[in-house]
Amino acid sequence: MNDTTAVDPDAEGAQPALDTPARALLERIPQSPGVYRMLDADATVLYVGKAKNLKRRVSSYFSRALTRRLQVMVSQIADIEVTVTRTEGEALLLESNLIKSLRPRFNVLLRDDKSYPFIYLSTQDDFPRLAFYRGPRKSKGRLFGPYPSAWAVRETLQLLQKLFPVRQCEDSFFNNRSRPCLQYQIKRCSGPCVGLVSPEAYAEDVAHTIQFLDGRAEDVIADLGRGMEQAAAALEFERAAVLRDQIATLSRIQQRQYVSGEGGDLDIIACAQEGGTSCVQVFFIRAGRNLGNKAFFPKTPEDTDDATLLAGFLAQFYADKQIPPELVASVEPEERALLETALSQRAERRVHIKWRVRAERARWLEMARGNAEVALKSRLGSQAGYGRRIEALRDVLDLPERPQRMECFDISHTQGERTVASCVVFDGEGPRKSDYRRFNIEGITPGDDYAALHQALTRRYTRVKQGEYPIPDILFIDGGRGQIRAVGDALQELGLAGLQVVGISKGPDRRPGTELLWLLDVESPLILASDSPAMHLIEQIRDEAHRFAITGHRQRRAKARTTSTLEGLAGIGPRRRQRLLKQFGGIRGLARAGVEDIACVDGIGRQLAQQIYDAFHEEATGP
């Protein structure tokens, strides 16, 4: 258990740090390892740090020459809180968690909005499936990755479909087939759903898939080569030709994806800084293959050097991610040995951080540095343009200061079916995807966008009033005068009147660039030039809300349409379901069948047949 001690500057014998030589303030801080938090007069956390000796580390802020950044921070300290830990390594882990949750102004802050995607193989199934996966790690099945982007996962899945016809369909689709689908026709699946491949042959394709994803492509090529020779000897020339093409495709992929001279798992990390902006570039190497790279732009205080930047980045980045056994960095991170210990403790195996490398790794590190510099220059250019668009928006709406948070809502449905509302958030730097939310709309008249908006806003801004999210400076709505009125009613009910609300509707000819802007309680629309920077920003926010809404709606609609009525019935397992679908040629044929016809199927008695009949006809007559 950690013991938390608050050092109260107003307690007896203590005064605020700025008014005393800090002796009273530091009096009760123990000489133990732990984490300290610097707070201002409003109890806002300014800085989180860790120390092997808390008293010595905290005292150093008041007894030595400080950089300009630290002078500004110390001048605002009104209180100090400490948490005692057992070891310095434990303090480092706690520090990284607190920085991610509290986001103090004077710390290096990594804005990492989402988990990384994996390739998932359901090895627990008789006929395993391959799939895109993002989320917490499960105990069942195997995960391969992580991959730096969803695109990298989907590209790999497409390659695997061409190499080894392992199914990639959902279980609900697989379990309800009575004949092979299009994937079988184009030779991207071997048809296990209808018994067109033996379990042994399918297991061989699964084994080759695992070998490939584990980085053992040479073993796969050797196995395929032996199979080709055996097929040719048995005069099975058609199969031999298929294996030959697989070997050729694998060889091309291997040449393109493998890192020359590398093997195993490692990450290559390089940083670049300019103009108060920092970039960290990470290359992901798994099983000797380069899975791609990703750029991060952590917030850094002034005067942060590369060693401090990388130390803060590594501690936060690997707080909730898989850690490879080796990290290659462009500079030695601050307190490298301690960081290695903490990461090893988290990974439950030894983790090495290297920065002096030669040969192939040195060339890859140089490439990572170059990519970091290119990404940084691009970011600086886009930030300048984004800043100009925000200033233009401020002028157009006559706001007292530059908006720091903007939210936009949109509604998506298909003729009223499975309505979804989206809420996207933009701040001073661009999209803040970690704050995006979707709302499944229920209990309204299908197609009533006004009621859908009212429900979504009520659900969102009830939480805003409870302090879960900050109040936005501007609320955008994809819609015109009617939608704006619905929004105004919802906000008034919540006691949030006075919020700046802007509706975005299509122009008379519905062409892009002719949008009309509607303001709450203003009868006439505001019309901006198509080349207005403010209009460009509004369109960007509106289009992002539309994209997020329609994606959520399509996912919800697809899930509803691929769920079979049979799956919810007790006593209907995969085998009985398969017999029913084969007997009647699919769900539609089964839905038209009578009780007597259903009862004739092997394994289906009269009572179960009645339940199946009732399930289909209740669904047909229900609301």
Automatic annotation (TrEMBL):
Q: Which UniProt keywords apply?
A: Cytoplasm, DNA damage, DNA excision, DNA repair, Excision nuclease, SOS response
Residues in UvrC family homology region profile domain copies: 268-491
Q: Which GO terms describe its molecular function?
A: DNA binding; excinuclease ABC activity
Q: Does the keyword RNA-binding apply?
A: no
Q: What residues does the GIY-YIG domain cover?
A: 31-108
Q: Which domain of life is it from?
A: Bacteria
Q: Which InterPro entries match?
A: GIY-YIG_endonuc (IPR000305), GIY-YIG_endonuc_sf (IPR035901), GIY-YIG_UvrC_Cho (IPR047296), Hlx-hairpin-Hlx_DNA-bd_motif (IPR003583), RuvA_2-like (IPR010994), UVR_dom (IPR001943), UVR_dom_sf (IPR036876), UvrABC_protein_C (IPR050066)
Specify the UVR domain's residue ranges: 218-253
Output the Gene Ontology cellular-component terms.
cytoplasm; excinuclease repair complex
Tell me which Gene Ontology terms the entry assigns under biological process. Answer: nucleotide-excision repair; SOS response
Compartment(s) of residence: Cytoplasm
Q: Which Gene3D superfamilies does the UniProt entry name for this protein?
A: 5' to 3' exonuclease, C-terminal subdomain (1.10.150.20), GIY-YIG endonuclease (3.40.1440.10), UVR domain (4.10.860.10), UvrC, RNAse H endonuclease domain (3.30.420.340)
Give the principal location in a single coarse category. cytoplasm
Q: What family does the Swiss-Prot or TrEMBL record give for this protein? A: Belongs to the UvrC family.
- Tell me the subunit arrangement: Interacts with UvrB in an incision complex.
Question: Which HAMAP family does the annotation name?
Answer: UvrC
Described function: The UvrABC repair system catalyzes the recognition and processing of DNA lesions. UvrC both incises the 5' and 3' sides of the lesion. The N-terminal half is responsible for the 3' incision and the C-terminal half is responsible for the 5' incision.
Task: Return the protein name.
Answer: UvrABC system protein C
Q: Which organism is it from?
A: Thiocapsa roseopersicina
